[in-house]
Amino acid sequence: MDSSQLLGITTFTYLFSTLLYVAIFVFKAPRLGTPATLFTFLAWVIQTAGLILRWKESYNLGFGHAPLTNMYESVVFFAWVIIILYLAIEWKFKTKVIGAFAVPFAFLAMAYASFSTDISKTINPLVPALQSNWLIAHVVTCFVGYAAFAVAAALGIMYLMKSREAGRQTGESSSLLSSLPPLKTIDDITHKTMVFGFIWLSGGIITGAIWANSAWGTYWSWDPKETWSLITWFLYAITLHAKYTRGWSGTKIAFLSIFGFVAVLFTYYGVNFLLAGLHSYGSS
Amino acid sequence: MKQTNSLWSFFASVKLAIFTLSFIAVSSIIGTIIPQGESHSFYIKNYGEVWARFFEVLDIPDMYYSWWFIGLLGLLSANLIICSIDRFPGVWRIVNADNLAIKPERLQKMSESKSWKISKSTTDPVLLSKVLLKNGWKTVQKKTDNTVLYFSQKGRWSRTGVYLVHASILIILTGAIIGHFLGFKGSVMIPETKSSSKIYSYENSTPIKLGFEIRCDSFTIEYYDNGMPKEYMSKLTVLKDNREILTKNIEVNSPLTYEGITFYQSSYEGYQDFLITITEQLSEEKKQFIVPFQRQKEWKEKQLRFGIVNAEAIGQRVVRSKLWFKAGNSPASIEWIKDGKSITVKDGSKLYSISVKQMYATGLQVARDPGVWLVYIGCILMLAGLYMAFFMSHRRIWLLITTDENNRSSILLAGSANKNRVDFSSRFSELAQKIESSIS
């Protein structure tokens, strides 16, 4: 069994997790809650094993490095962090329905990694510029941030669906969306997730700057990836200011969480394929 | 006076902050789409005459250093400074407030409060304060004739977190300004065995004197089995007044710093010349020669003649070369040598070890940035400030015990938190329960 098989299995297990959580949501079947959590955790364990195996395989090829060095590996890691964060939120806030919104992100990421023809799954040795201890720190901090923003966007979507229903005031408490947590709770979790992501994104930008300085002697060079990460950082900074000082909440913050994640996706993915720059390693 | 006030409040406003941040964010996109730092003709070719002139006016080819972009950063800084000056004193007052001076009426109105009435015989204020201490609330107290007030707080400094973040941004910008004006960035190409005492600025290619010499002793590239480059290495020596001060092997990600100037491995250039090093093994006499392709060289004292008669290359990289070598009157030897390897040749009683490698020049990026430490300090402060601002909250607990003329006591437990109130609320209930069980 090799790592790509394990990670391939993960894709399907995350699909199944998604279906379980959607079933809880759609059929209001709380009995499925525990199986959904257990199954998702199992899927995550399989993915962890896949990542460790890939790490080991790189050593067997004679140039060991952490599986965090190209597009494929980063997408897989992204999905891995989304699930960990989601399970932490589920455990802390004792609510399962969020899974129907958050777990699909992990599944989509894995499906893209597994089936897209744009990205290569081979394990390659590291070019000299990537051989640094800052590699792991930089990639981990960035992707924990990105994953948190993905979960925040999932929560934002959930908020908008629920608030639209509340706006209609049909009084049909039997409707689908009544099983979602109260709006206030969703708003609170969205905010906390966003703040969490913001700190990690800050850490990601900082570790990137320190690394750039040790490799090239410039901590900031306005390369497109750097600039887009800063734009994303500004977007979330604006959101947090609007929330704290102007009292924005609810729908506005939900929209901003989705909008912010679009910027994250562009920073992460769009820049690699649409704009040229120092970060070209990430695109192969 | 009123006008200065309105100007002040304009600069202190969050509206301005949101506007400036949005403007910077949106305008930053331009520079990621329109290539930066190209020649005027490039823009004419790709965007047409009119747009190129328009770009010129707005400094788009160098937009992150343009007057208007720097101006926006300046506006953001002014906003940060004035808004912090405006708000910080109020926060400072809360941080250092005398919380024992609070009025009982205000305690009752707090978001969390709970009271009990009991006969005096069962209440001992000291015992109650111990309940607080046991639950991690260290108290201060104030007594009057008929009241005892205990107060405890946690995380009061977290209120300054947001100002720490603001300050950290200013510190980072200051570091960047210092680096820009007092530092330099440039590059230099040094052929193996040669040295240089100056480098060339990125901005305008003017030479910058180092104050010492830097010599490239050797440059090597290591390859993976699949042909991908594994590492670029230069052996550099710092020389001052022709004295060798220090020698270091640098790689990408592992530069050399001397007197505040750092040398980074950044590129290389392959020559058609060869570097031949000959060592006489007994006397350990050694000499290095730069030998152009298919030209003869001579080490006269040793009566040695040699040259590279043929070479095999992949692209610009020589893989092996054919050495022709003649010592004294012995017959000449011809042998293929892998690049960078050596062979041994015998001439009567003498043994020569000869190594042959393609000659390279190493491309170094050179930077002096006296502001970088300020930038790093700013980064650390930013993370600390963000953590304080978002993950810590200022939690306060008051316990007021009042005894009335009928010798009955009333106990009031009140508390507030400036963040994460849900969590605080459940902790407050736990604490209230413990107080209750200790008085019943």
Automatic annotation (TrEMBL), chain A:
GO biological process: cytochrome complex assembly
Record localization: Membrane
GO molecular function, one term: heme binding
Lipid bilayer topology: Multi-pass membrane protein
GO cellular component terms, A-Z: plasma membrane
Domain of life: Bacteria
Signal sequence bounds: none
Transmembrane segments: 6-27, 36-55, 75-91, 98-115, 135-160, 194-216, 228-246, 253-271
InterPro entries: Cyt_c_assembly, Cyt_c_biogenesis_CcsA, Cyt_c_biogenesis_CcsA/CcmC
Keyword Transmembrane helix included in the entry's annotation: yes
Residue span, Cytochrome c assembly protein domain: 69-279
A Pfam family matched in the record: Cytochrom_C_asm
Keywords linked to the UniProt accession: Cytochrome c-type biogenesis, Membrane, Transmembrane, Transmembrane helix
Name listed for the protein in its UniProt record: C-type cytochrome biogenesis protein CcsB
Native organism: Desulfomarina profundi
Phylogenetic lineage: Bacteria, Pseudomonadati, Thermodesulfobacteriota, Desulfobulbia, Desulfobulbales
TrEMBL record, chain B:
InterPro entries named in the record: Cyt_c_bgen_Ccs1/CcsB/ResB, ResB-like_domain
Domain ResB-like residue range list: 14-301, 356-428
Cellular compartment(s): Membrane
Membrane topology of this protein: Multi-pass membrane protein
TM spans (from-to): 7-34, 65-85, 162-184, 373-392
Alphabetical UniProt keywords: Cytochrome c-type biogenesis, Membrane, Transmembrane, Transmembrane helix
GO cellular component, one term: membrane
Listed Pfam families: ResB (PF05140)
Main location: membrane
Domain of life: Bacteria
Protein name: Cytochrome c biogenesis protein ResB
